[in-house]
């Protein structure tokens, strides 16, 4: 009997596996909503929007019609996630189910969920690994000003938070019960909520823990700071399972964004990004689709920025060394998000793996950058902590004002480029801009004209080596290089097609415009 039972179980499991393989995940967009329904958001959300001068609520805040959900269930369509922003649900459908759902009168369209979350491999955070970037962004300036993210709530959307409560760098967060709530969109939260910190399915289940420690980590026993927002509080969402998995999980990401918005979260870090997509090439994202408009998660990120007043901070991506891709992933392509690239430690130019901004975008991406040895997924949380300190200093700043302030505080401003954006945000400059908002942010920048094929500048007192960006327009880099000074002089050799050259002295930036 035992052998027969085992055989039956194996056949049942095989049948289940074939059934899952026969299904594809889809967005099912619905036609309308009940305008008399109450918005599905909290008083805190309404308060935030009122403070920022935004519309208190609109149709995107109204819940999806219950009767539509019931009819989908009757049609044997088990919904996975529900989006009020897009008036849609996600579901896995067989070909037969797809045909049935498309024929329902209240369904406007059905769209496959393509794309993959690509998560760069990282190493466990150590104080020695984060110390250089804390020095680079001038963490001590925030510390001297008493800024540590206190009173700021941060949402973190990531792959997993394995062993976070026992991580030495996060002990202070859990000791003061600063995790307000958590949701697991990969595994049903009601079933797996008790395993949120202990589920070990892939290497990526440590990813969110590492991101958290880069936002707010501290080793109190050694008086060491590993992140800037050491006194913030958090909502956590696990939305992705696995590394380089060819499966769409953007619906989980959208659901997490909507959940955090409903709670009044104004600052969200997401160190995940979509890159190339399904194994079927016909469903892959293409480079020209990294336009800030094509992917659902870019649309969601832009909606969050424009209508919800949320500052979304996103890692730019780690495809800079991939000759078939190289550019940022989505949602870093959305205009309204703060996309973060990565620099090297010594020269502050682009580290090789950091994704570059596509030249077809009419706006600059990435927005800013900072040092990270282990991927842009660890540079983005550094700037999230940076933003939390600024929000603490002035809680009335809107998300767009914060982006503007962070960009202006960066060391290359206003001469940004598609390799590192405006460069490394500096706490001293950000605090000065807070004191004097009318400051242009160009105090440390100057522009000169040059002609011919070379130009020599006298730079006494400058380091022997400087970083130079050769550009074919004001934003787009041809190549970057490190140039040696000779007796306090720097000679720039103009490249074919070069129209602008940015000379990065860290404390000053010089823009050469070729005539």
TrEMBL record:
**Signal peptide per UniProt:** 1-22
Record: active site? 158, 207, 377
Q: Which GO terms describe its biological process?
A: proteolysis
Pfam families xref list: Peptidase_S8
Q: Which UniProt keywords apply?
A: Hydrolase, Protease, Serine protease, Signal
Residue ranges annotated as transmembrane are none
One MF term in the entry's GO annotations: serine-type endopeptidase activity
Q: Which residues form the Peptidase S8/S53 domain?
A: 149-423
Q: Which SUPFAM superfamilies does this chain map to?
A: Subtilisin-like
Which InterPro entries does the entry link to?
A: Pept_S8_subtilisin_bacteroid-2, Peptidase_S8/S53_dom, Peptidase_S8/S53_dom_sf, Peptidase_S8_Ser-AS, Peptidase_S8_subtilisin-like, Peptidase_S8_subtilisin-rel
Name the family: Belongs to the peptidase S8 family.
Write the protein's name.
Peptidase S8
């Amino acid at each position: 009997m035992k052998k027969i039972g085992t055989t039956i179980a194996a056949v049942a499991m095989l049948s289940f596996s074939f059934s899952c393989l026969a299904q594809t995940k889809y967005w099912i967009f619905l036609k309308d909503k009940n305008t008399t329904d109450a918005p599905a958001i909290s008083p805190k959300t309404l308060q935030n929007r009122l403070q920022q001068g935004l519309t208190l609520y609109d149709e995107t805040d109204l819940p999806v019609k219950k009767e539509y959900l019931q009819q989908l269930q009757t049609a044997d369509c088990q919904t996975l996630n529900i989006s009020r922003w897009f008036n849609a649900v996600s579901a896995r459908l067989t070909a037969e189910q797809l045909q049935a759902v498309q024929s329902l009168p209240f369904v406007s369209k059905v769209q496959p969920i393509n794309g993959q979350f690509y998560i760069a491999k990282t190493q466990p955070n150590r104080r020695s690994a984060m110390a250089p970037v804390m020095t680079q962004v001038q963490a001590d300036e925030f510390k001297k000003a008493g800024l540590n993210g206190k009173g700021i709530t941060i949402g973190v959307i990531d792959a997993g938070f394995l062993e976070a409560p026992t991580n030495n760098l996060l002990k202070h967060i859990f000791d003061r019960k600063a995790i307000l709530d958590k949701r697991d969109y990969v595994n049903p939260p009601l079933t797996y909520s008790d395993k949120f910190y202990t589920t070990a399915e892939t290497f990526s289940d440590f990813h969110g823990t590492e991101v958290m420690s880069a936002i707010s980590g501290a080793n109190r026993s050694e008086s060491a700071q590993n992140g800037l927002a050491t006194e913030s509080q958090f909502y956590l969402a696990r939305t992705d399972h696995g590394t380089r998995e060819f499966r769409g999980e953007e619906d989980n990401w959208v659901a997490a964004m909507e959940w955090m918005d409903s709670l009044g979260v104004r600052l969200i870090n997401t160190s995940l990004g979509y890159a190339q997509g399904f194994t079927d090439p016909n469903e892959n994202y293409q480079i020209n689709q990294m336009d800030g408009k094509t992917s659902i998660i870019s649309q969601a990120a832009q909606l969050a920025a424009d209508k919800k007043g949320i500052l979304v901070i996103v890692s730019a991506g780690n495809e800079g060394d991939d000759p078939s891709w190289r550019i940022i992933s989505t949602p870093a392509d959305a205009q309204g998000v703060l996309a973060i690239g990565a620099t090297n430690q010594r020269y502050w130019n682009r580290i090789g793996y950091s994704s570059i901004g596509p030249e077809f975008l009419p706006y600059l991406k990435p927005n800013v950058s900072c040092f990270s040895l282990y991927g842009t997924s660890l540079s983005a949380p550094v700037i999230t902590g940076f933003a939390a300190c600024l929000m603490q200093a002035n809680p009335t700043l809107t998300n767009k004002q914060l982006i503007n302030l962070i960009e202006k505080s960066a060391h290359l401003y206003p001469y940004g480029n598609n390799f590192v954006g405006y460069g490394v945000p500096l706490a001293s400059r950000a605090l000065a801009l807070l004191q004097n908002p009318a400051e242009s942010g160009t105090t440390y920048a100057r522009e000169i004209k040059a002609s011919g094929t070379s130009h020599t500048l006298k730079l006494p007192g400058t380091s022997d080596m400087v970083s130079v960006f050769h550009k074919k327009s004001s934003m787009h880099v041809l190549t970057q290089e490190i140039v040696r000074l000779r007796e306090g002089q720097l000679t720039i050799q103009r490249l074919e097609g070069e129209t602008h050259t940015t000379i990065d002295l860290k404390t000053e930036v010089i823009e050469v415009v070729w005539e």
